[in-house]
Amino acid sequence: MGQYYIIDFDSTFTQVEALDELARISLQDHPDREHIYQQIEAYTNASMEGRLSFADSLENRVKLLQANREHLHLLVKHLRKKVSPSFSRNNIFFKEHTDEVLIVSGGFKEFIIPVVTEYHIKKENIYANTFLFDEQGNIIGYDRSNPLSQEGGKVKLLKELNLQGDIYGIGDGYSDFQLKESGLIKKFFAFTENIERKSVVEKADYVTPSLDEFLYINRLPRAISYPKNRIKCLVVGQVEEDALAQMQKEGYNIRHHQEIKEEYLQEAGVLLCDEEHQPTPEQLENAGRLKVIGCFGKVSNRRVIETACDMGIIIFDDPKHNPHNTDFIPKRVIAFMNEGKTHTSCNFPDLQPPRVNNAHRLIHIHKNIPGILAQINEVFARHNMNIVGEFLVTNSQIGYVITDVNAGYDEQVLNELKAIPNTIKFRLLY
Known about the structure:
The chain is an alpha/beta fold and 430 residues long. It has helices at 9-13, 18-26, 33-48, 54-65, 69-80, 85-88, 91-96, 109-116, 153-161, 174-182, 198-201, 211-217, 241-250, 262-267, 281-285, 302-310, 325-339, 372-382, 411-418; strands at 2-7, 101-108, 126-129, 131-133, 139-142, 165-171, 187-191, 206-208, 232-236, 253-257, 268-274, 292-296, 314-317, 359-367, 387-394, 398-406, 423-428.
């Protein structure tokens, strides 16, 4: 009895609805294209929200396409650039579960297969509709005998497959929820990275803002150790929308407040603030989850800088009204959170480690006293773990160690590293 993962394509594996995108390609020179686009999108949304049968929606959309094989080639190129970010970074999951992942979609194999097979998904595990073409290569319809072209098609298909084991469904639309409603799958995860449909979210077992969250909940192989949507990013003061957009794209849970209060800071993993709204040393002493501060302005209070360092909290700042800080600050914050880079910090020693593939990266921040690195490496040696890269930098207050180790470790390793005396902070990046 195994486990199977049924994954939708449109607005789940990719950020877009492929038939809508195909229409924009095939109708770009049509004089009435905007009106037709709106019709196609309306049919898409109606079926995804359960207001129109999928069969009727599909038939109406295909009639409006006026597409051919050349348009499909262009669509595939476009879709490859539109894979959902959390899917594209979690290739490790698809590689290690190639037999258990199934793409089940009301879309079409002609554009799905070229996109998803690049992620170790087997062609025989891709279930979707197929177009019918005339001799000139124009799309004239689709195979109506395919259950996925019919209302309740995913349910019909899964009954035919008769998979033996626990089945988990991931999707954004009503047809995905129908699998749960039918009793054929164990849990349904409403995927909201690209679009959130209220009628689907309300009926889901879980809402997963990214594939990272799904993999984390189910303890599956993943690119990052902790989903960004679980990390609160506290925003206080004048922070430009372009800067916030970068953080939102990364998936952080953005929280706006008028001032910095201790209860807000205690929940936050990231703080973005301006020069007029900075935390006090006392607030930082109680901010156990806080990892990084990005200040759009200068942090001139030495006690704030030193207290943050003592607490293992890195600070990036930049002169007030510097036109570059809208881009500079979020990029520095993201580089630290994703790869452990500390370059240009005002309170941490400088380190820019290269990314190492096929390894796990661990960060250990400790008081700058002799012997800590030896204790870290003793833990790895005791568990027969191979170090593929290690970096240590210090300042007068802290030691900052990044260790890249070969894949494969258990929770005991992490617990022992956290328990080393004089440890300030420890975390697994990926």
